[in-house]
Amino acid sequence: MDHHKTPVFTALGEAAASGVVHFDVPGHKKRMQYGTQDPFWDQMLRYDFNSTKELDLLSSPTGVIREAEALMADAYGADEGFFLVNGSTFGVLAMIMAAVDPGEKILLPRNVHKSVINGVILSGAAPVFVDPEIDYDNGIANGLSAQKVRETIEEHPDIRAVLVINPTYFGAASDLASIVAYCHDHQVIVLVDEAHGAHFPFHPDFPPSGMAVGADLSTASVHKTGGSLTQSSILLLNEGMVTRTRVRTVLNLIQTTSPSYLLMASLDLARRKLVLEGQTIYDELLREIRRVQEQISRIAGLSVLTRDYVDPKRGRTSFDETKIVVNVRGLGMTGFEVYDRLKDEYGIQVELAETYVILALACIGDDRSTLDALVEALSDLSRRFYGEAPTLDVPQKGFFDKPTTVVSPRNAFYSPKKKVRLEEAEGEVCGESIMIYPPGIPLIIPGEKITRDVINHYLFYEEQHCMIINNDEDPHVLLVLGE
Length: 483
Ligand SMILES: Cc1ncc(COP(=O)(O)O)c(C=O)c1O
Prior knowledge:
single chain; alpha+beta; Aspartate Aminotransferase, domain 2; Aspartate Aminotransferase, domain 1; Ornithine Decarboxylase, Chain A, domain 4; 3 domains; 4-stranded antiparallel sheet; 14 helices; globular; binds pyridoxal-5'-phosphate
């Protein structure tokens, strides 16, 4: 296919230049002035369109969107591609709803993003949770081992689908090829949450993508690592156990009828760049990342994950080196403190922190200068703080234990609920998902029993000034089951 083409972007440019007088929405009519000092805001309106015959319909595409989706599918080696304008959150919901009917079992690692739990609630699927492999030295959860997937399917032969995170937020990729082969031998559908792996098909040193190893569905946040605008994402399908019609039906159940053409055009432009220049860009980026890893590993008090992190038995058959995971324990500080200092004292925003690590993402938009700024800031932090305090040792007992599921997430969601204070919640069955953002992995989900470990973990994150998501304005008020 001709990847120089950008069907949506090109049609949008033509529509913006056409001089048509608009008596349709959006109401700014491409001529309103917001009155800011920044001309960008007024110029942007020229490209903000509703669907027309020339610009095609996202919910039933036959024109430029269809063409652009076919190019996207080709770029990822998929049979079909679907543009999404509500992030991979929407893709995850759609994958689950397309693959499993109410009551059918789905195997999930417990370190899934909240969108997966929401997909379980919406679809009525019965989750079979499996513990991911835990790396206690770095205080992070990794992927699923293929062996655990096999054992769980042997134990629950009626499992309909398996969801794999490829890769985890911290770059660990499971043995997806073996998981797909085993699942397909047993008529089990494989869904891949590739929110952090949209760049995988574009360089051979990245872990294999879901579509490359024959998974049925995957959703990739092109907006996260692939260079498109925030919220634009894609759903990819290898047709077989799940049909195109089924996916389209589910998408039309929950997707907006007013998708943003700015987002969709950016998917077109990012795909063109990734296909035509990705290999060269990532050759250079990986060279820089490896140089920077080498430099960070020599800074006192720090260590960094590299290609050597691979250990298939521990749920990491391959590792995505664009995730720069720096262990900062040796500075005597938590990752949360380093995260704040990098922002407040050095003007560096990293993706997220955990107790022992920070995660800096190196993406298609980075180069030597941005990576050097990170190394300089880390070197300076080490000069200032290394040796001032002993290596950090936080008791993590129970932080990674899977809470017991008492009621299915869907039944818990629809059950009567009452409010209790966090301090008194031990033993109650949780009625909501509570999580730290980022990464948005719930500490507890609807239907799970609240343990002392969960409460302690929550209080620990709060003490570290993390952003906590719960449904009440008071972060210490939780919804639990009961009248
Ligand atoms: C593993 C994982 N899956 C899905 C999502 C949802 O993606 P999006 O933010 O594109 O909606 C995220 C977001 O952080 C994520 O980390």
